[in-house]
Amino acid sequence: MKDDTQELTLFDNYDFIEKIESLMADCESAEVEFKSARGGFPGSLWETYSAFANTQGGVIVLGVKEKDGKFTLDGITLEQARKYKKEFWDNVNNKAHCSANVLQEKDVQDGEYNGSYVLVFNVPRAPRNKIPVYLHNNPENTFKRNYEGDYRCDASEIQRMFADADITEHPRDYKILPEFTIEQDIDKATLEQYRRLVATKSPDHPWLLLDDKHFLMKLKGYRIDRREKIEGLTLAGLLMFGKTDSITDAYGCPQYFPDYREYFSSNPDDRWTDRICPDGTWEANLFQFYYRVYPKLAASLPKPFALKDGIREDETPTHTALREAFINALVHCDYSVDSNITIELHKDCYIFSNPGSLLLSIAQYYQGGNSVCRNKALQTMFMLIGSAEKAGSGADKIMQGWKKANYRNPRIEEITHPDKVVLTLPLVSLLSDEVISYLKSLFGEEITSIEHNKLMTLATCCSEGEITNYRMQLVLDKHSADITKLLKELCNDRYLIPEGIGRGTHYRINKKFREGGLPGNVASNVASNVASNVASSPDKERRRRLSSSELHTAILQACVDFESLETIANKIGKSLRYLKNRAIPIMVAEGLLEREYPNMPKHPHQRYRAKKR
């Protein structure tokens, strides 16, 4: 790290200005926060640092004040920026001030913007063994981030974070429940059904010869702790094979209530069309819940005809992905959270929601190959009957299965207060036979062999008429910079035509591809137009900032009928995050907009319409 006598490292100022402009376009959200430093280094920065490190990371911009979407520069000088940077590094490496430093030098950037110096802190999610990140040597000063900003964690949240940090050595479901017994609390019919499934898959498995107690011990459903001199059923054994009343009586399952719902009605006011939940007619342990619900989920997937070794194979990679998503919700669940598992089947998607937080970053989840299981015994139990993949491959199977079916990419998100992980598997295919046929007619047979994300981009553009960077971020779950690179390559290959300049650029299919060029003088402008979408100079084509009343008027004009957030963002040229986190909630609260699903504000397909007066 540099000392205070050295010059600040000024990154390419062109790129730095674009970064600041991009962050301002997003405005404050769950991932971005602006801090004024006019009166000195702001103490509130540390609460945001803790909150970002304990959730999914984020960006702190120091030296810019934001209010109602308007930005004011603090006028920080080079000397002040140097001082603030040194103060930050001194404190973040001081254990008495902050429990963990999760930043490297490259994560703190600085530069000049419109005559004022600005510091940008790129705070990553902390490694699992460093969470919680807290302040002033006191775990009570632990913060998390949600859409409303930073909040102080309560004692139960902090306790769960410490437990997750030690999850490798002490899985949650290994916990012994000495007051519960096999005779009184295990549902014998469930255990017998499970044994039969093991015998079907592995007829010669040696565990099948054991009595119930020793069979459960092999599964870690029953444990003996010689050091503590206790033995009994474990949390895993009770959850998997237990009686409903016994599970809900157990300490550590305050809100156990596995819930499956189908939403097939076209009427948004209908609550559900089918439901499976603990209703007293069955023992609602995890095994019974899984075997009642999975067939209903699988029935919604097509079963294309395929032969393997001369035998029809009904199970596809998409079925494997679906099963893995379901099992993940059960084995990664934090049953100590005051919430419950919900599995939803909609016409156009599956939604798996389980209490708890991710044990790795969302980026690591999408990359695959990494897995930390909160309930290792439950995972073993499902693996033994062939219903779960080995550790580390679950997310890979989900992504590959959905990609194989040409569905839109799965989307995972982490919600706080209470902690919850939500995985959405869209059932919308962008590569229908009609779309592929049309693309082949334009670009030739070889178009289907291009990189998958590029093919999905062309298919989306074909289906919707035009696309934007915003739109493709939603479809592909990629960062805007990655989307920009992909769009630029498609334009350079003449598959797409850019229209407009900067962030307002739209892209259309090049219908004159076979004529060997682009219509008009577009070809000569492709590179410059796309490049301007990446780094438009603040002195050129700067987007005019709207007042609150102007913004509200534009949104109302875009919402004559029910429209999605991405459609509204595309129509008015504003950030999707800003609309989601600021403008839209305010307009709903003021009665200017109405939701299509008023009783489900976080419905995955929520749309908005101007309220009739």
TrEMBL record:
Transmembrane segments: none annotated. InterPro entries: RecG_C_sf, Schlafen_AlbA_2_dom, Schlafen_AlbA_2_dom_sf. Residues 28-151 form the Schlafen AlbA-2 domain. This is Schlafen AlbA-2 domain-containing protein. Gene3D superfamilies: 3.30.565.60, Schlafen, AAA domain. It comes from Alistipes communis. The lineage of its organism: Bacteria, Pseudomonadati, Bacteroidota, Bacteroidia, Bacteroidales.
